[in-house]
Amino acid sequence: MGNLQNDLIIRAAKGLKVERTPVWVMRQAGRVLAPYRAVRQQAGNFINLVKTPELAAEVTIQPVDILGVDAAILFSDILVVPEAMGLPYTMDEGRGPWFENTIRSEKDLLQLSSAPVTDHLAYVTDAIGLIKRDLNGRVPLIGFAGAPWTIFCYMVEGRGSKTFSLSRAMLQRDPNLAHDLLSRIADATIQYLKAQVEAGVDMLQLFDSWAGILNSEVYNVFIMPYMHRICEAMKDTVPLTVFAKGAFFSLKELSDLRCNTIGLDWHTSASWARQVVGEDKTLQGNLDPAVLYGSFEQIKTQTHAMLDAFGEQRHIANLGHGVYPDIDAEHLKCFIESVKEYQYKLDQ
Ligand code: CP3
Fold this sequence. Notes:
binds coproporphyrinogen III; 15 helices; two-stranded antiparallel sheet; TIM Barrel; single chain; seven-stranded parallel β-sheet; alpha/beta
């Protein structure tokens, strides 16, 4: 694997033999780390941090140095794509993302930019260049994007929601408009992911954070074609992980995607997932992030139980969703060390 000193995660994704299970953590670059909070303060706000390549590179690498994870994940956000498509957003502490303009009608689609999204995303590819230089092959770099349904939700609602009912209403009332928007998002996502690969990322992850709000019929018929379009477009590039949170109801269909790894949330058991997905894909996950509120002993026991359940090969250890920002960094570190130490024990 080129000039990578630690390529465990790439080998695990490709189904090649690994000496121990690799580990990284969703939201590892974030508020859980005090040095992140310091850099964020220096940047003034979240969006400035995302748009300043030197600072984004610095916080991307922090978890590699502090936590000892087996991969870095690009510090950015899935919302840079809707912004590049023409919908600017703000991110206020405590309130989450907020878009001034939304897409609710055919007329709203006209406000979207027709320029390639990559014209507006040079700050991301610049950050990737700096990160690759500074990582210097220590661990692989994971790039990412939001999946079409999750990005659609933000573009339609303009903010987070418990029910995403405006988005789900559009699927019912105006399916042609919904398809038009989903299709544009899928194409923009392909351009963006290809630009990340060209800039040097070693792996990719597609986040479908709000998949679980749909049902299998809607997800399989309405959404899955766009997931296929993206996976097909990326199949000859770098290993790809698809994480559709809450979409246990479509796990079989997800396992037919041309991707290497399926991410699992903590509602899904390892043995059931392996049975449904079969042997040809790697599984990623899936410790309940709330376990990290427990004692060191509890974290270690439950992490080892998770590793027992997945087995040694074709598994990338992670939480079942992003780490909660009020978790003690030492507890997060305990999770990572528990994964590494478990394999060490097996080798004795
Ligand atoms: O470490 C990493 O995982 C890399 C960076 C990363 C961020 N967001 C940084 C971030 C990644 C991969 C994301 C993806 C993302 N963003 C998703 C998909 C993953 C998931 O969590 O389901 C989603 C849905 C978003 C949208 C988003 N960004 C929301 C809803 C929020 C507000 C909620 C919150 O956690 O504050 C964000 C903000 C955000 N993105 C923060 C970080 C570190 C917190 C902002 C801050 O520092 O104040």
